[in-house]
């Protein structure tokens, strides 16, 4: 793969104008930055910033530390934070030492094993974005100074011609997408790297440490001479805070093309965790001595343990830690001439968390990618990779599995910044693995033939265009899916808003990280989902462009309401997910007069109220299979049992479709067909206050629960009637409704000369649709809607609805 980098850097830049690409690697403990000036027609050159201000000797990495005073004002940043004079001044002036601030940008719900590490606080009055912004500003200013010192540009020319064309590639740990990327972008804006505009946002790009490390390895010539399609390699980037492990496969050689073979791993197992264990070791050994106080232990860790013990430990001999310049002895604690002896096994235990986590991440990558262990080398890079004990212990354990660990001869500790620049110039990764399951919340048509729908009949809702059930988690893409760069996942939905003013869409894209398959029923699994993107779209112009349509569907209420509700507007739209790039993106898309329209995703946020999206592409059973629910014998037995239960135990029986469906039908009736014309402001002026109450017929009344509810809210019982095909139903109704005026019986079934004002049915039509077909191939449901429509009084109701 080395020839790939050579050919890439020999290729002339084809961009339209001069641009500067700045690759930024903010590490937990150390940071670095690289850049390339891209001139049209010229070959790109990549430079590392290897000399920072206040740096005595040149180095391409600086400590990720900032000192603030008590008011939150920045005092010292970068290389000078490690000097004795700064440390002394910090103590004298009570400065706040801010370190490991990168970890504050970690995804809030990421499951991590930190081995006792606790994040330090933030300076007074400063947010995590502001602290990161301060550090980004420093790195970029130092990069500009480096270019000016190297005479690439003068300060005036740079500010006038190049500064506004800078592109920033920020490297972050594997899996830190969504909210973390937004925090990085906000930090870049606060640091003054770009303005807070759409164009400014586009100048901030991201790359994972896994991909940047892979390109850094190609830069460092770690690849085999004869590269072939199918060759796999694993990158293990061991830094100060995290260890990022990624597996790639070569899928093309001319040009080079790579794909991720498994979900990249991110573990909190960097070198800082060795220091944490070292601190606990020192506190245990020195307990009760004069050395056990916060400042002394801090100094021993930062000056002696990290610089000497941790870096020089090989695992072969005991280690020694200098406690000070006095030569006192304490044989009980192992102190001789002011030097503390640390047993080899104790120091090795300080590394155990990191070593075991790295081995687990490697094993997990092999398991997920199904790679051949003996044929897949592991390239260990990052600042922690230079540790002698870590590399020896990892090699020893991996050799037991016939896994080969390779460490570059050159220092790639901060070459990730170079990889970030290469990623922008020409990235060879053509497919990535989806790290989570994405979906959204929707409703679907109620299907009586599905047992899971019937079991949740209390979730059934009556909308303007039929019966629907939900909310459901509609999976858009599953965890572990290989996604080619540029591929978009699209699913179609619709809405039926009541008016143009209510045609604004608000919705969330959710993720699910648990075991597959993802749950289907949202309410029963709410705690398993997290919101990652918020979507908003104004569909009012779409409302204007579509024609009104009649009610669609096949259930009883859909057919019944098609006779009493005016036409509605179906607003068809798509949710489009773009997951193949470095940033997960989503958009609402629709066609308006043949032209595609988009509304893109907003910032991630907390879970909001779900929006009722209806799936258009959900499977619809065009020819329902006969079930026992469609037989007379089944309902005979059900009602006989209910009569017995009522007479013996005063058990009112089953409320079919749930009490919620009864309440919704009553609520709809109250709003649209009130008990008396005077009780609703929507009543037509043509309807006299002396007009009779509405006449309501329930088809398939069963045990009469709906009729009872209607009478209870003020409907005249003498104008209510229930019909069913079983004589026992009337007996059940009469028994349940004793104590109130008798419900109208069969003598009112024709509704008089004017017919019925309203006909209701909670599910009889659905049951008839499940009946066996007769010799002519028809079911009772086939003529149902026409027969019901003849019973209705249509004109007055339409007038009321218009009002």
Automatic annotation (TrEMBL):
Gene3D superfamilies: 3.30.420.40, Actin, Chain A, domain 4, Vaccinia Virus protein VP39. It comes from the Eukaryota. Transmembrane segments: none annotated. InterPro entries: ATPase_NBD (IPR043129), SAM-dependent_MTases_sf (IPR029063). Residues 678-690 have a biased composition (Low complexity). Residues 673-696 are annotated as: Disordered. PANTHER family: ALPHA KINASE/ELONGATION FACTOR 2 KINASE, HEAT SHOCK 70 KDA PROTEIN 12A. This is Uncharacterized protein.
């Amino acid at each position: 793969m080395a020839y790939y980098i050579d050919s890439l850097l020999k290729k002339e830049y084809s961009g339209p104008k001069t641009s500067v690409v700045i690759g930024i690697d903010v590490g937990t403990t150390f940071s670095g930055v690289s850049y390339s000036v891209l001139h049209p027609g010229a070959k790109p050159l990549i430079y590392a910033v290897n000399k920072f201000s206040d740096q005595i000797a040149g180095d391409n990495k600086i400590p990720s530390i900032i000192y603030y005073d008590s008011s939150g004002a920045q005092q010292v940043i970068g290389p000078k934070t490690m000097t004795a004079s700064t440390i002394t001044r910090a103590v004298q002036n009570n400065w706040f030492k801010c370190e490991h601030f990168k970890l504050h940008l970690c995804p809030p719900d990421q499951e991590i094993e930190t081995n006792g590490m606790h994040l330090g606080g933030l300076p007074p009055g400063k947010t995590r974005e502001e602290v990161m912004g301060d550090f980004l500003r420093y790195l970029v200013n130092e990069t500009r100074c480096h270019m000016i010192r190297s005479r690439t540009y003068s300060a005036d020319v740079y500010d006038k011609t190049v500064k506004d064309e800078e592109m920033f590639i920020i490297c972050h740990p594997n899996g830190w997408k969504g909210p973390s990327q937004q925090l990085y972008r906000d930090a870049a804006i606060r640091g003054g790297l770009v303005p807070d505009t759409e164009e400014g946002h586009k100048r901030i790009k991201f790359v994972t440490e896994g991909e940047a490390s892979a390109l850094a390895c190609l830069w460092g010539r770690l690849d085999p001479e004869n590269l072939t399609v199918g060759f796999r390699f694993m990158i293990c980037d061991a830094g100060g805070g995290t260890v990022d492990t990624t597996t790639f496969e070569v899928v093309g050689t001319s040009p080079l093309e790579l794909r991720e073979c498994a979900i990249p791993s991110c573990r909190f197992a960097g070198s800082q965790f060795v220091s944490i264990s070292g601190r606990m070791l020192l506190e245990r050994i020195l307990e009760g001595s004069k050395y056990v106080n916060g400042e002394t232990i801090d100094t021993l860790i930062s000056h002696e343990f990290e610089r000497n013990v941790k870096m020089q430990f090989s695992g072969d001999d005991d280690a020694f830690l200098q406690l000070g310049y006095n030569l006192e002895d304490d044989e009980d604690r192992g102190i001789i001439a002011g030097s503390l002896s640390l047993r080899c096994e104790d120091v090795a235990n300080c590394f155990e968390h990191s070593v075991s986590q790295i081995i687990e991440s490697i094993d997990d990558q092999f398991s997920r990618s199904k790679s051949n262990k003996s044929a897949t080398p592991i390239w260990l890079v990052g600042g922690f990779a230079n540790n002698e004990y870590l590399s020896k212990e990892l090699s020893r354990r991996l050799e037991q599995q016939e896994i080969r660990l390779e460490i570059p001869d050159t220092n790639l500790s901060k070459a990730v910044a170079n990889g970030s620049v290469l990623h922008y110039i020409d990235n060879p990764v053509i497919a990535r693995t989806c790290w989570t399951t994405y979906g959204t919340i929707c409703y679907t048509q109620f299907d009586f033939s599905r047992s899971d729908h019937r079991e949740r009949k209390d979730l059934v809702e009556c909308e303007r265009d039929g019966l629907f059930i939900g909310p459901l988690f509609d999976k858009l893409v599953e965890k572990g899916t290989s996604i080619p760069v540029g591929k978009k996942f699209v699913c179609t939905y619709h809405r039926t808003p009541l008016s143009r003013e209510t045609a604004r869409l608000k919705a969330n894209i959710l993720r699910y990280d648990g075991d597959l398959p993802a749950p289907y029923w949202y309410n029963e699994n709410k705690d398993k989902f997290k919101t990652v993107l918020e979507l908003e779209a104004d569909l009012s112009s779409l409302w204007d462009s579509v024609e009104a349509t009649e009610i669609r569907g096949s259930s009883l209420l859909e057919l019944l309401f098609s006779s009493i509700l005016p036409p509605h507007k179906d607003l068809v739209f798509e949710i489009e997910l773009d997951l193949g790039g470095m940033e997960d993106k989503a958009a609402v898309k629709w066609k308006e007069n043949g032209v595609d329209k988009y509304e893109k995703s907003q910032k991630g946020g907390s879970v909001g109220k779900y929006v009722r999206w209806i799936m258009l592409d959900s499977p619809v059973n065009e020819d329902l299979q006969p079930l026992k629910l469609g037989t007379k014998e089944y309902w005979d037995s059900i009602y006989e049992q209910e009569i017995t239960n009522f007479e013996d135990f005063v058990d009112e029986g089953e409320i079919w479709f749930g009490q919620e469906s009864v309440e919704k039908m009553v609520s709809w009736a109250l709003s649209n067909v009130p008990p008396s014309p005077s009780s609703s402001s929507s009543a037509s002026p043509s309807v006299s206050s002396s007009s009779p109450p509405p006449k309501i017929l329930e088809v398939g009344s069963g045990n009469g629960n709906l009729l009872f509810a209607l009478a209870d809210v003020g409907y005249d019982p003498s104008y209510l009637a229930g019909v069913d095909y079983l004589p026992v139903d009337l007996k059940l109704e009469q028994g349940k409704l004793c104590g109130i005026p008798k419900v109208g019986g069969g003598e009112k079934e024709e509704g008089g000369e004017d017919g019925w004002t309203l006909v209701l049915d909670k599910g009889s039509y659905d049951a008839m649709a499940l009946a066996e077909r007769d010799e002519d191939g028809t079911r009772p449901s086939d003529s149902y809607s026409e027969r019901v429509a003849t019973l209705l009084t249509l004109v007055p109701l339409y007038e009321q609805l218009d009002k």
